[in-house]
Amino acid sequence: IRQSAAVMLRLRVKKHWNKISPNDRESLKAVVLQAFAVETEHKVQHSLSQLCAVMVKHETPDRWPALLQLLNQSTKSTNPHDRRIGLLLLNKVIESNPEPFKPHYCQLLQLFSTVLQDYNNPPALYYCILTLTAIMAYTGTEEMKEMRAIIPSLIVALKHLIKADQEQASEAMEVLIELMEIEVSIIVPHIADIVRFCLEVGSDTALSDSVRVKALSCITFLIKLKSNSVLKLKLLGPILQSIFPILTAAPPAGEQDPEDEEDDCGDPTDSDNPKHSAAQMIDTMALHMPPEKLFHHLVPLTQACLTSENPYQKKGGLMCLAVLAEGCADYIRSKMLSSLLQTVCQSLSDSNRVVRSAALFALGQFSEYLQPEVSKYCAELMPLLLGYLSSLSEAKIGHVTKVFYALENFMENLGSDIEPYLSTLMETMLSALNNMENLKIKELAVSAIGAIANAAKELLVPYFPPLIESLNGFLTATTEEMRPLQNQSLDTLAVLARTMGKDVFGPLAAECIQLGLKLTDAIDDPDLRRCTYGLYSAVSTVSPESLTPHLTAITTVMQLALKSNEGITAHLEEDKTFVLLDDDDDDEDKGIGEGGKTEEDFLEDGPETDIHDFAGFSVENAYIDEKEDACDAIGEIALSTGAAFQPFLESSFQQVFEMRDVSHSGCLFSLIVPLCSVCCDGHAACGSPSLSE
């Protein structure tokens, strides 16, 4: 009951503080501090500290001397419990509004230096480190000396916190990344100590994956920012010596690595575990270190793995080669591509499926980043890949996914060199579409057809009629389980529109536009809408006149996507969430925050609402992708349809321009082209002698 009362009062104070009289404010501050001082239940103390944090947003610390006095007394108390509770309160009020406490930073850093040695009080260590993280971005040169001096104690404190509570330790270790990001010069004298600590934690198999991943990510972040310092301190060798056992570790008996499981369909470096963190670290090294120095250390380690009889050693070596492809592309192309491809080809024929899967991933990476040189090895690689395709029905879906990943990346850049293999490829793909029961394999085959079309172009024309016939059933699907296959079919249809040319695809153009509009009317799915935008855009390059009668409907859907806040979620401080501006929900189903706070409450707060009351906002990737693709489509359709788009220029420009403050970098990048495109189109429509001008 006391906790609920504190939560309700916090929401009321946040919303109506300016309506409370000065006398009532003073009374409220006194009552809250008194309640906090006598409370014994931790959950209630936590809620009361959050209430104090909300009040500090309105009442700066200097206008609340009683708060400062309580903080001073409790954090310096000889009673460990009082210190813990005092540091909890300090953490909440500073996290809510760090800057007004800046005059006290030096004093706080002296306090932290003492608290960080309180090893028998892990909660005190935890709250202390979180508070240190909160003030980091606001420190200046006057606090530099104290900040540097505190780092050795901070590392020791983290070690003790790991022993006491790994979950809290993982969160607290964010302080290291914050130190690097805000003021990397502070940690330069301590880089070696930080690296040794993180390697020790990352290599300890007795610890949880989360804390090991956090430790390894700290080193990865350091390499990104200070790769030269890592090299000068001769830390590259020790780092690689430590992470290779992680990269090549076998899973526990009876288990598999996530990417080797039967139903896995993802990127082998995407999962959040120590092995993948080790691979990501090597990837970062490749992007930020001179390849000569990196390969000097990597070659003997990788060779030892690849010549081992242990399949997980081989897998680790292949994963290492795979993640080097992007950052060291020029070096590999000029010095070792042939030998690396020979290694990959041998591994593609390995008796162990774990090794073959890793080899397929490596080939996919090489095909993506080492073009056009990789395509020259078509005669050696295509027979191997076609051999994999011949046994699709027998392979596990995770393995099949990797086969198609390698195949797609390799085929897409072959151009006319694909001709000798085209018949076999298309027979295999069409057979998969018509005869396979597994929907995932059908989806992969449809995607591969898009890659084949990009390479073959007009060579694919003889296969166009049966291909469209096979896709028809997927394009008009109505069940949820068919949605991924339907979306992929729309994407591939767009590729066919661009590659088959007007004579072949033109007769289907109007039907494609009608299909897209019918689907978006019937199905509310951001991924499906995104695919239809790509289809409209592709058709506009082949048959712009097919879009003209439907431009009102098409631009309306895309502008609504740009305007919509659907999928934005506000995260409250106590890990409760509500969906912000979800127009489709009934009022009673909208936001569920503490004390029943709803979307309407948030919107009605007006200027009194402080966005910092929320831990943050997130947007589902599907909605971000939809906005990006809508931006791209608007630009291309505007250019393709020319004067017909003029009535929609102003509204499109305005809606796209209003997206300029969006924080997602992909959207920002996508906005540049359509803005310029729409402007160019308007220039052309007004009588410009040359659109290219």
Short note summarizing the structure:
It holds the Pfam family TPR_IMB1. With 693 residues, the chain is an all-alpha fold. It is built from 35 helices and three strands.
What attributes does this structure have?
mainly alpha; 69% helix; disordered C terminus; three-stranded antiparallel sheet
How does this model look, in words?
- By secondary structure, the chain is mostly helical.
- Helices cover 69% and strands 2% of the residues.
- The chain has helices at residues 2-16, 22-38, 42-58, 65-75, 80-96, 105-115, 122-135, 144-164, 166-172, 174-182, 184-187, 191-203, 209-232, 236-247, 274-288, 291-306, 311-327, 329-335, 337-348, 353-369, 378-389, 397-411, 419-435, 439-456, 464-475, 483-500, 502-505, 509-522, 526-542, 544-547, 551-563, 599-604, 621-641, 649-657, 665-685; strands at residues 568-572, 577-579, 614-619.
- It has a 3-stranded antiparallel β-sheet.
- Helix 2 (22-38) packs antiparallel against helix 3, helix 29 (526-542) runs parallel beside helix 33 and helix 34 (649-657) packs antiparallel against helix 35.
- The radius of gyration is 30 Å and the shape is globular.
- The termini are far apart.
- Mean pLDDT is 84; it is low at 570-618 and 689-693.
Distance between the termini: 70 Å
Percentage of residues assigned to helices: 55-70%
Tell me the total number of β-strands. Answer: 3
Task: Summarize the main sheet.
Answer: 3 strands, antiparallel
Runs in which pLDDT lies below 50 for 5 or more consecutive residues are: 570-618, 689-693
What is the arithmetic mean of pLDDT? 84
Number of helices: 35
- Shape from CA axes? globular
Assembly of the depicted chains? single chain
Strand order in the sheet with the most strands: 2-1-3
Proportion of strand residues: under 5%
The structure class reads mainly alpha
Instruction: Evaluate the radius of gyration.
Output: 30 Å
